Structures are given as C-alpha cells and as structure tokens.
Amino acid sequence: MRYLGIDCLALVPGTNLKYLTNVDFFQLERPMIVFIPAEDAELAVLIPELEAPAWESEVAIPSLLFPWSDEEGPEGALRRLAKGIRPQSLAAEYLRMRLLESSLIRSVWNDIHIAQAEDILTPVRQIKDGRELEYIQRANAIAETSLTQVIETITIGMTEKEIGRRLTASLLMNGGETVPLEPLVQSGPNSARPHGRTTDRKLEPGDLLLIDYTTTVNGYFSDLTRTLFAGEDVPAKVVEVYGVVKAANAAAHAAARPGASCQDVDRAARKVIEDAGYGPFFLHRTGHGLGLDVHEHPVLTKGNDLALEEGMVFTIEPGIYLEGWGGVRIEDNVVISGAGCRSFTQMTRDLTPIGLHH
User: Fold this and answer.
1) Residue 215: enclosing H or E segment and its boundaries?
2) Collapsing DSSP states into helix, strand and coil, what is residue 211?
3) Phi, psi (rounded to 5 degrees) for 111
4) Nearest-angstrom CA–CA distance, 24 and 13
5) What is the model's pLDDT at position 357?
6) Which of 177, 197, 198, 321: disulfide with 327, CB 3.0–4.6 Å?
7) Strands 89-92 and 8-11
C-alpha cells in the first residue's frame, strides 16, 4: 500500500477479506466495509450489529468496530468511523464492491481518489503457501475420486443433468465442502461451447462428453475438465482432435517453470494446436489462476509477460471446439515448483470410453 501510495484499503465480504481474516462473511443487503489503514495496526470496521459478535469472536486482528442497526442505518456509524481515518487515497475492490458501498464512501469522503485494491492484493494472493497448496491438493484428490466413481455409472441415454447431479452428490459424499459452480456436463454438439450449459440432452453412442467441474476445501478450488467418449469404436477424427489437445496440454506443462512468462505457456499450447490446423478453434486462454476464487491471477494468455514464480497455482486447459461436431478440453491444476511445475491432477489424460455397460 505504501509503495502504491495508498493510505487505506476498503474491503467488502468476499475472498480478499477471507484471505486476510480466515473468516467468511456473506455479502448481503446490509453494507459491511473493512478499512485497513496503511499506517495503523488497527482495522476500522463498518458492520451490521448482528454480524459484530461473529467478528469479535472469530477475527484475531485488532479491530475497532462501528456497528449499525437496521433502524439507524449505516451512515451515522460511517461518519463516526471517518473521524479516526482521513485518507487522501483509498483502494477498493473494483470486482466486488457495489454502488451501495461506494456511494456510502463518497458520502463521507466525497472527493477521494479510489484506486483498484486488486493491484495490492493480487501479488500477495497469487503466491500460495504450503497450507494453501495442501487445500488445493485435497480438493483435486476429492474431484478425481468423484469423477472416477461417476464414470463407472454413466450409461447411454442418461441426460447431462442426471450425470451432473450424480457428480455433485459424489463430490459432497467424498468430502468436498461445496460445489460452488454447477458442473458443466456437455454431450455431443453441446461440447463445442467452451462455457455451455448442462441440458436435458441424452447421451448418445458416438458422443463426446465434456465434464468441467469444481469443488473446494476450506474455500480453495480445484477446477478440472475431462472429455470422454460414449462407445467403443472411436472415430479417427476424435482420435486426432483428442491427440492434439493432449499434446497441447503436455506442451504447456513442459513450458511452465519459474521465470517463464504466462504468455510463454499459452504460446506453447497454442503452437501445437495451430500446427495441427486447429488454431481458430482454440477459443480461450490456456489457463487461469486458482485459489479462493475459481478464476484469479496469474492468467495464461497472450500479452501477459508476468514471470511465473514458485507457489503460483493455475489451470492448464487447452481445447478445440468444432461447431456442430463437438469439443475436447483437458484441464489440470498445477503449481510452479522447483525447476518446473507439479501437477496436482493425477487422473489419466487418455481418452476414456464410457457407457459400455447397461
């Protein structure tokens, strides 16, 4: 904060606040803002009075609370808080703070410059410590066990939604604390949409089946994708496209190491797909950071020359999507470690046949 010339950081409930306090507060209709001054050890917290006991009992950081009731509203409490903090510059979460909170801040400090809190928090959050890596490893293990179990039960004629419900149940049964995002289960031509929807379409012989799913352990995400094939006799085109994506995944793994840039990893995966003639059908970046958010920094995309460092965690997920035919994506979760990268994801990257039993 001092380096960027920021006097005070303003956070609302969400993953940045959880990262700093290790406590989850929900962002509901009542505004809650935590002010972190650069030059003071004590936080100033505008908080609904019904949330104050949770803060006092669960947050170990020295804090001065300014509770407010539904009857009085937050304005008076914020004015009392403002008597002790007079920032010249403030950083707020552009991706999370609502007009509700920003207009409250403006009502007290009407001419203050508001910078992006992400510039302060991203460099801190994108390097994971051993405890964070352990949570991500556990989330991966639960995810892999769960999909492996569900694959055994998939039969021709099952709907995408039914497969998705089975996977959700399996994730929870195996110790995933939440399924924060509904699994994407896309069969046949539906798999050609990188961010499609799970529908009532029934699995047919000869379909590709793309499954992209998440779970969390202590809030930390795993985010995996596997593409399966319904049937035994795999057509030559499926073998070809799948092989290209698998090779692109391997190339990105090989390129991910300390000192390489994010775009170096993207370029390695993209080159394999372009050389095979499928360049225009790789429709997204090669990967994104993973942690308390399912999409965070670093971002593996063209133009990002950020150097990878030990402790950075991200996905590697090249794909090819052919409209009307189908799509293939293979997504792993990795961490920069030692001279290269270590994959949390251990399950096979080979094309897996499904639906062979009845």
Assistant:
1) strand 208-217
2) strand
3) -110, 20
4) 7
5) 58
6) 321
7) parallel
Separation CA 312–CA 316 (nearest Å) = 13
Length of the chain measured in residues = 358
CA distance 347 to 288: 20
Contacts of 155 (CB under 8 A, 6+ apart): 203, 355, 357, 358
**Distance (Å) of CA 75 to CA 24, 85, 237:** 24, 15, 63
CA distance 317 to 82: 46
184-201 pLDDT, tens digit each = 999 999 999 988 899 999
Identify whether the C-beta of residue 249 lies closer than 8 Å to the C-beta of residue 316: yes
Low-confidence ranges of the chain (pLDDT < 50): 358
Distance CA 83, CA 74 (A): 15
DSSP state of 224: E
Residue 96 is classified by DSSP as T
- Name the amino acid, one letter, at 58: E
Which tokens hold the place of 129?
A: 């410590």
Alpha carbons 329 and 327: distance in angstroms, whole number: 7
Q: Locate tokens 């993209």: which residue?
A: 270
What is the DSSP-derived secondary structure letter of residue 345?
Answer: -
User: Could you tell me if 222 and 142 are in contact, meaning their C-beta atoms sit under 8 angstroms apart?
Assistant: yes
Looking only at the bridges linking them, the beta strands covering 287-289 and 296-300 are antiparallel
Q: Select from 2, 10, 1, 4 the least CA-distant residue to 109.
A: 10
Burial 212-233 (b: 16+ CB within 10 A, else e): bbbbbbebbbbbbbbbbbbbee
Tokens of 244: 């290209």
